[in-house]
Write a structure and sequence with these properties.
Blueprint: H1 2-25, H2 27-47, H3 60-84, H4 87-95, H5 97-109, H6 115-131, H7 147-176, H8 179-202, H9 217-242, H10 246-253, H11 258-266, H12 274-293
Length: 294
C-alpha cells in the first residue's frame, strides 16, 4: 500500500505540475523538457547496473518503439489538455486509460477479466461520461469560445493513446520484465519529439504562436521535476509488482487524480458542477476496482 500511495503522490504531483508549467511556458516545451528529465532516473538505474535482466528483444522492439510514438502523442495531449482545460476534469479523464488497456488485453491477449474488474471498467467509463458533462460550467475566459472544451477533448485523446501505449509496453514486459520496455519506449518518445522539433524549425510558421513566458532555468527545473516525478511513480509501481503487490499498488495508486483535482479547485479556482464532481469520484472508484480486480 505504501508503494501505491507513493506512486499516487508522484503521478498526482506530475499532473498538477504539468498544468502549472504548461500554462506558463507552453505544453510543447513542457513536453520536451519533462520527457528528457524522465530519462534521468531511468538512465541512472541502467548505469549503476540496477536494471533487471532481460531476454532477447525480437519483435518486442517494434512494440516498444510504437508505444513510444503513441506515448509522445499521449503526453502532449495530456499537457495540452491541462493547459487549456479544467485540471479537475482532464486529469481523471486521462487516468481512465487503464480501462482501455484492460479491454485491449482481454480482446488481443485473451486475458481473463474478473467480475470486479469488469465492474470497475464500467464505472470508469460511466464516470468519464459524467465528468465531461456540461464542460462550459468550468470555463475559463469567454464562455462563447471556451478553451475548456478543447482541453477536455485533448484529455480524451490522451486517455486513448495512453491506453494503447501502456498495452504495448505491458505486452512486451511479459517476456522482457519492466525496465527495458519502459526505457526503450521513453527513448522512442524522445526520438519522436526530436523529429517533431526539427520539422517545426524547418517549416515556416504560418500562424503566430501562443504567447508564453521564455522557459528559463526555473521553468527548466520545474518541467524536469515533472518528468522525474512521473518516472519515479512508474518505478515505485514496478517495484511493487516485483514484490508481488500489483493489485494493491494498482488500487491505491488509482487515487492519484485526487491531487490535480484538489489543485484545480484550490489553485485555479475551478468550479465543476455536482454532476462532474460525481463523475470524477466514480472514475476514481472504478480505477480502484480495476486495480483490485486485475
Amino acid at each position: 500500500m505504501i508503494y501505491g500511495l507513493a506512486t499516487a503522490v508522484c503521478w498526482g504531483l506530475a499532473d498538477l505540475g504539468a498544468a502549472i508549467v504548461s500554462r506558463r511556458y507552453g505544453s510543447f516545451r513542457t513536453l520536451v523538457t519533462a520527457q528528457a528529465g524522465s530519462m534521468v532516473p531511468l538512465t541512472l538505474i541502467l548505469v549503476f547496473g540496477l536494471a533487471p535482466p532481460t531476454g532477447p528483444l525480437g519483435w518486442n522492439a517494434v512494440s516498444v518503439i510504437v508505444a513510444g510514438t503513441f506515448a509522445t502523442l499521449a503526453f502532449y495531449s495530456l499537457y495540452r489538455g491541462l493547459e487549456l482545460g479544467p485540471v479537475a476534469i482532464v486529469s481523471p479523464v486521462t487516468a481512465a486509460y487503464s480501462a482501455i488497456t484492460l479491454l485491449l488485453a482481454v480482446v488481443l491477449l485473451n486475458e481473463h477479466l474478473s467480475s470486479l474488474a469488469a465492474v470497475g471498467a464500467g464505472l470508469t467509463i460511466a464516470g468519464v461520461v459524467g465528468a465531461t458533462a456540461v464542460p462550459r460550467a468550468v470555463h475559463r475566459g469567454d464562455p462563447e469560445h471556451d478553451p475548456g472544451r478543447a482541453g477536455i477533448a485533448y484529455g480524451f485523446l490522451a486517455m486513448g493513446t495512453f491506453g494503447v501505449a501502456t498495452f504495448l509496453i505491458g505486452s512486451a514486459a511479459r517476456t522482457l520484465d519492466w525496465f527495458v520496455p519502459t526505457y526503450l519506449s521513453r527513448l522512442a518518445t524522445l526520438a519522436t519529439i526530436l523529429v517533431v522539433v526539427v520539422v517545426i524549425r524547418i517549416r515556416p510558421r504560418r500562424t503566430p504562436a501562443t504567447p508564453h513566458e521564455p522557459m528559463r532555468w526555473r521553468g527548466l527545473l520545474a518541467a524536469t521535476a515533472i518528468g522525474v516525478a512521473d518516472a519515479a511513480g512508474l518505478m515505485l509501481f514496478s517495484l511493487a509488482g516485483h514484490k508481488g503487490m500489483v493489485a494493491i499498488a494498482a488500487a491505491t495508486s488509482a487515487v492519484f487524480p485526487l491531487v490535480p483535482v484538489a489543485g484545480g479547485l484550490l489553485l485555479f479556482g475551478e468550479r465543476p458542477t455536482a454532476l462532474q464532481l460525481s463523475g470524477v469520484g466514480i472514475v476514481i472508484a472504478g480505477l480502484v476496482l480495476l486495480g483490485l480486480g486485475a
